[in-house]
Amino acid sequence: LDLFVLPELEESGGHSLCPKMPPTLAGPSQTDTSLVSFRHMVQTFKHLHQNGRFRPSNCQAHQRLAVIIPFRNRKSHLLLLLYNLIPFLSRQQADVTFFVIEQLPGDIFNKGALLNIGYLEALKLGQFDCFIFHDVDLVPLNDKNLYRCGDNPRHFSVAINKFSYSLAYKGNFGGVVGLSTKQYSEVNGNSNLYIGWGGEDDDLLERVTNKGYFISRYTAELSKYDMVNHTRDKGNEPNPFRVKLLELARVRQEVDGLNSIQNSIHYNRTIKDMALFTLITVDIDNDR
Ligand code: BGN
To answer: 45-74, pLDDT tens digit by residue?
Structure first.
């Protein structure tokens, strides 16, 4: 196994804490679609990262972030997202490591399980205070939308162009969300049982509110996102059981999630350092 160890937090020692509000924010922006290639991107951001970790050069960030991106067959979206997200987070003076969790073809997509695997594997590789779970097709449009964790889980992607820049529905907790390491562990992560499209994010909301948390949101103005146009993915068809599963979300919470992943799904995973991100490839076998 090709494991590598992330540098310890102390390494940024000597620097004082970054200001609470980064002086480098630019406010509203547009998606930058000028990207040429992955190689070009590695070149462009070479000065910003070290062992896949990005951090401010002259101050110590407040939190150490892990951005978890579930992925399958969306290479152009991934390039576009990282090309926009890296400078965005750099203006936010974030200390961030990207993890792309790719499910290999074969079985139906299981986003909840991929998020859990991303969380568990990231914590084996480094120390993180805050997890940002990020859909690959959502590009943030205002760097005042600070990617940080707080006392309550945060829903970042409040105003997506596809939904006319407003919340898709009141209880939406999908797209881009942030939970502290402790919060995600406390809610037992995501359910592993949503195989196919839909419902796992609504289930996470049930888990979070069941533990007494509220959902934090910034204003729509700050929370704008572009969703990249795409057709529905093969191998991620709507899950016909999602409504039934959701009804029992709270009942299953303690026995379905981070603590049951080893028993409830069968998978192999490999880990690879891709310079700008850590790639965790997951082969799920639903039939075993
Ligand atoms: C909802 C889906 C979410 C999805 C949003 C936005 C369900 C559960 C049905 C009870 N929820 O309808 O998972 O993020 O649409 O597309 O399907």
So the answer is: 988 887 779 999 899 999 999 999 999 999
Tokens of 182: 């402790």
**Positions marked catalytic:** 135, 137, 197, 200-201, 227, 230, 232
* pTM for the structure as a whole: 0.95
Give the ligand 1 atom nearest the CA of 168.
Answer: 6
Distance between CA 284 and CA 139 in Å, rounded? 28
Is the CB of residue 197 less than 8 Å from the CB of residue 236? yes
Q: Are strands 159-160 and 224-227 parallel, antiparallel or unpaired?
A: parallel
The one-letter amino acid code at 126 reads G
Side-chain-side CA neighbours of 137 within 13 Å: the count stands at 14
The protein residue with its alpha carbon nearest to ligand 1, atom 15, reads: 198
Q: Is the CB of 52 under 6 A from ligand 1?
A: no
Query: What is the reported pLDDT for 49?
Result: 83
